[in-house]
Amino acid sequence: MGLENLFFGFQIAITPFNLFMAVVGITLGTIIGVLPGLGGANGVAILLPLTFTMPPTSAIILLTSLYWGALFGGAITSVLFNIPGEPWSVATTFDGYPLARQGQGGQALTAAFTSSFVGAFFSIVLITFFAPLLAEIALKFGPPEFFAIQLLTFSSFVGLGGGNPLKSLVSILIGFILAAAGLDIVTGQLRMTFGFTELMKGFDFIVAVIGLFGIGEILLTVEEGLSFRGANARMNLRVVLDTWKVLPRYWRTFVRGSFIGFWMGFKPGGATPASFMSYAFAKRFSKHADRFGKGELEGVVAPETAAHAAGVAAMLPMLTLGIPGSPTAAVMLGGLIIWGLQPGPLLFKEKPDFVWGLIASMYTGNIIGVLMVLAFVPFFAAILRVPFAILTPLIIVLCAIGSYAVHNSMIDIWYMLIFGVVGYVFKKLDYPLAPLVLALVLGDLAENALRQSLIMSQGTMTIFLTRPISGAITAVAIFFFLLPLITPWWRRWRGLPAPAPAPRET
Amino acid sequence: MRVADLVTAVVLMALGGLALGDSLRLGIGWGTDGPQSGFFPFWLAVIMNAACVVIFVQVLRRPATKPFVSRRQIGPVLAVLWPATAAVALMHVVGLYVAAALYMGFYMRWVGHNRWRAVIPLAIGVPVVAFLVFEMWFLVPMPKGPLEAWLGY
User: What residues 91-110 of chain B have any CB closer than 8 A to a CB of chain A?
Assistant: First the structure.
């Protein structure tokens, strides 16, 4: 029955208008991925207002295609300019940039795009078969189960996110507190407005995304006084075909990277650790481990496969549970609500055309995407040669337009600037931004789930542990929360050395 | 870095304190129909303040490292921030498009030292294109000022 639905989805995804949306999305997304200061999340956020009047399925196809494009674009800057546009592209620079310096940029880019495609494709196939099952199970979930899943979502930032776990925790709580500000819809009371009417409507997470990721990233970029000195890539059909002849040799790396990516990716904050883990595994199992870091094609394949498998897998919880796995998925979830859809497991029952159109568009989008980036790399790379003094004000103006359009309110542009400064300071001090955004998105949902659970249990917290499914999920969540405390103790007991500090997901 | 870390922790604790105070005002216990409004924010703020205290102590016990931002770095950051702030203030008066044109022109000419030849077409062209895309095609209204009123929008 899965295939039947998929076929139905393809009929929606390959209408001329939706294919056109995919092409537009991928073009814009790749440009956004190449530009410093604009990534998938704020790119989607800025474009969101343009989709208000579209049919939801075309709108989500535009936004997801933008996301695929941004993922591909990140690889271009990593390989040619040694600038990872996103944290999960960091591992791609290790071997991609040396290859480009040796005049093999074309090979490195072909390998990167192909690996991205393979990783993404693997995850899409798994989503096609697992998403309906997961949605079916999730239909039986009550408020305690949903609250337990929220706990699990945030616990994985604390336990697996890297960096200082306390700072991850603080970021999450700031997000929740900001979400609580404004009108409490359950009791009708005003919370934390301190008499200011402007605070009544609370803080919109789309504005927070644009400020934290867009403006904050721009400030960080100008601070570094970045000058782009890129390597050139000769890309033609011959280079692509020659590279494709070599790539099957790395099938083990592809398979390993895909599995690592999917497994890490459907949990939040998984893409970056997945790319590093895949790189480390490839190096360990390679016959020429010494060549890694100096320009080994396999060192490009491994992180790119995993990062993209993870990037796609992040859509799974968003679709089936209504709980986004990444800031980009969070913005799309916000879009769903604006278009009048109710995210969550019911979506599969009530809007099959939307869900299956989206899933089918993941296939078409990625196929169009890989062909487009392979064909137009020089064009996309040329964008980085535009002087930064022109890009900076342009990006800030776009951010302002995107922030204003959410609610037609000037105060949101001021919030955007404030969030920008906060993002800049937090990034420098190692407070992660992604959990803050997710908490801001999920705040009301989490609070309602908690309230309803407590009403069910007459106010005792044990309800989360006594129901079998929520009990199991809560136990895992508690384990993740405690992981930063357990790990050093475990290492001392086993006599293991202290680990190298893990890189932080945005 | 250390001072900035400590200041951030203190600022967050102050914000947590505000949330705490307001939650207590709303009531943190059990109301007639479930938890009161202040229940959830209260516990969030309690945990956040506790975490900030631990972070504060952690930072204090660590030796000072490199400064948060050097004099050379802060220059370009402020050069982005203050014209942007001025432009947002200006939007209240002249609308988004005119403010964007002035801001882009200013930044490209005085910060980027670009030639007038490049500055003028871009500073005028980008807002015009944005106007066409947002106001005309996608019907997303932006703040407008006297110029747009004079043109009949």
Answer: 91-92, 96, 100, 103-104, 107-108
CA–CA gap between residue A203 and residue A251 (Å, rounded)? 47
Tokens 């890694």 locate to A292
Instruction: Give B34's contacts in chain A (Cβ within 8 Å).
Output: 186, 451-452, 454-455
How many Cα atoms within 13 Å fall on the side-chain side of residue A431?
28
Q: Out of B23, B68, B143, whose CB is closest to A428?
A: B68
pLDDT of residue A135: 87
| A187–chain B nearest CA distance, Å | 7
B40 and A439 in contact (C-beta within 8 Å)?
no
What residue of A is the nearest CA neighbor of B140?
Answer: A405
**What is the secondary structure of A206-244 as a DSSP string?**
HHHHIIIIIIHHHHHHHHTT----PPP----HHHHHHHH
Which three-class secondary structure state does DSSP give residue A38?
Answer: coil
Per-residue confidence (pLDDT) for residue A2, from 0 to 100? 65
Q: Give B17's contacts (C-beta < 8 A, 6+ positions apart).
A: B45, B49
- As a whole number, mean pLDDT of residues A95-102 equals 86
DSSP chain B: -HHHHHHHHHHHHHHHHHHHHHHHHH-SSEETTEE-TTHHHHHHHHHHHHHHHHHHHHHHHSPP-S-SS-HHHHHHHHHHHHHHHHHHHHHHHHBHHHHHHHHHHHIIIIIS---HHHHHHHHHHHHHHHHIIIIIIS-----B-HHHHHHT-
Helix (H) / strand (E) element for A139: namely: none
CA A161 to chain CA centroid, Å, is 14
How many CB atoms are located within 10 Å of the residue B150 CB? 8
Tell me how far the alpha carbon of residue A135 is from its chain's centroid. 21
Closest C-alpha to A94, from A110, A113, A75 = A75
User: CA-to-CA distance for B46 and A487, rounded, in angstroms?
Assistant: 25
Q: How confident is the model at residue A269 (pLDDT cuts 50, 70, 90)?
A: low
Q: Number of A:B CB contacts under 8 A?
A: 174
What pLDDT shows up at residue A317?
Answer: 87
Residue B77 or residue B67, greater confidence = B77
| pLDDT score, position B103 | 93
The residues, ordered by sequence, that sit 6+ positions from B75 with a Cβ below 8 Å of its Cβ are: none
CB of A184 within 8 Å of any CB in chain B?
A: yes
What CA–CA distance (Å, rounded) separates A348 from A135?
A: 7
What would the pLDDT profile of B99-150 be if each residue is shown by its tens digit?
999 999 999 888 888 888 888 888 899 999 988 888 888 778 888 888 888 8
